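Q: Given only this backbone (291 positions), what sequence would you predict?
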C-alpha cells in the first residue's frame, strides 16, 4: 500500500508552483554552470528556504551526472525529534511539486534488519525540512531517470555510533549506482542561535564567521572524522548537519573507493557587522572519486 510523505514545506520554504519551481532550479543550475561528472558520488548541500540557500545548493547538485545512478541515500539532521540513533522513513513515496520520488523499500528492509535503526513516524518525517529541501533538486537533476531514495534521519548520534553507521553504509559507497546527498547548513550566528563566537583578528564579524566555517570545511575536505570532531569540540560551531557529515566521513574512510570532498561554494544569509545581527552560512561540496 502506498504511504505518502507530503511536500509539507512547499508553499512556504519554496514555491509549490511546479512551473515556477522547475524554472527557478533550472536557472540556478545554469548559473552555477558546472560540468556533470560521473565521478561525483555524493554532495553536501544546505537545506534552508530556497530564497536563502537555493542558489548555493545548485553548486552541489549541478555536479551530478544522473545516467548511471539508480539510488540516492539522503542523510539529514533531526531538528525537532530527539533520537540517539538514525531513523528510517515509513513512507513509500516522497512527494515534490515537480515529481514524486519512490523509496527503496528493499534497502530500507535490509537496514531495518540490522537492528541499528528506529522508524520515524510520518508526522516526524513531514515536520523535518532537512531532507525535504534536497528533494526538488534531486527530482530536477534526475528528471527522466528512474531513481529510488533511502532517507536517513540522523539523530544526536555519539562519536562511536557515527563510526558504526559509517562502517555499515560503506559497502553502499562502493556501488557506483548509489549516490549520497548529505544535508547541512553551516554556522548559525547570533543571539537567537545562542552562538556568538567572534575572533577580532579577522576583522568584521562576518569575516570571523567565514574563517571559522572555512576552517571546518578544510577539515571536512581532509576526510578525517576525528579532526572534524575535535574542531567541533573546540569551537562548537553550530553546523546543524554535523552528525550526517561525520557519518559520511566515516563511510568514505571505510569504503574501498577513494573519494575526496571538495567545497565549491560558500555564502551567508546576511553579513553580520554588530552583535545584534544574525546569519546562517551555506556551503556546497561534491564528493568525487579520486583517481
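A: Predicted residues:
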Amino acid at each position: 500500500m502506498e504511504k505518502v510523505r507530503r511536500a509539507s514545506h512547499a508553499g512556504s520554504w519554496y514555491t509549490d508552483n511546479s512551473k515556477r519551481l522547475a524554472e527557478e532550479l533550472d536557472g540556478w543550475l545554469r548559473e552555477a554552470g558546472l560540468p556533470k561528472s560521473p565521478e561525483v558520488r555524493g554532495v553536501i548541500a544546505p537545506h534552508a528556504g530556497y530564497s536563502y540557500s537555493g542558489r548555493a545548493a545548485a553548486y552541489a547538485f549541478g555536479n551530478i551526472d544522473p545516467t548511471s545512478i539508480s539510488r540516492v541515500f539522503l542523510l539529514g539532521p533531526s531538528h525537532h525529534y530527539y533520537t540517539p540513533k538514525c531513523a528510517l522513513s515509513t513512507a513509500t513515496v516522497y512527494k515534490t511539486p515537480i515529481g514524486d520520488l519512490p523509496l527503496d523499500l528493499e534497502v530500507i528492509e535490509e537496514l531495518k534488519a540490522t537492528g541499528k535503526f528506529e522508524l520515524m513516524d510520518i508526522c516526524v518525517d513531514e515536520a523535518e525540512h532537512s531532507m525535504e529541501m534536497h528533494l526538488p533538486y534531486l527530482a530536477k537533476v534526475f528528471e527522466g531517470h528512474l531513481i529510488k531514495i533511502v532517507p536517513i534521519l540522523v539523530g544526536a548520534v555519539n562519536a562511536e555510533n557515527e563510526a558504526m553507521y559509517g562502517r555499515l553504509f560503506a559497502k553502499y559507497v562502493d556501488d557506483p549506482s548509489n549516490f549520497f546527498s548529505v544535508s547541512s547548513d553551516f554556522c548559525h550566528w547570533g543571539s537567537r542561535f545562542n552562538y556568538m563566537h567572534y575572533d577580532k583578528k579577522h576583522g568584521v564579524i562576518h569575516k570571523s564567521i567565514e574563517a571559522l566555517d572555512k576552517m571546518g570545511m578544510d577539515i571536512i575536505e581532509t576526510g578525517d572524522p576525528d579532526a572534524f570532531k575535535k574542531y567541533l569540540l573546540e569551537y562548537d560551531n553550530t553546523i546543524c548537519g554535523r552528525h550526517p557529515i561525520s557519518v559520511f566521513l566515516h563511510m568514505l574512510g571505510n569504503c574501498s573507493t577513494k573519494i575526496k570532498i571538495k567545497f565549491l561554494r560558500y555564502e551567508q544569509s546576511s553579513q553580520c557587522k554588530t552583535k545584534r545581527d544574525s546569519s546562517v552560512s551555506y556551503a556546497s561540496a561534491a564528493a568525487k572519486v579520486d583517481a
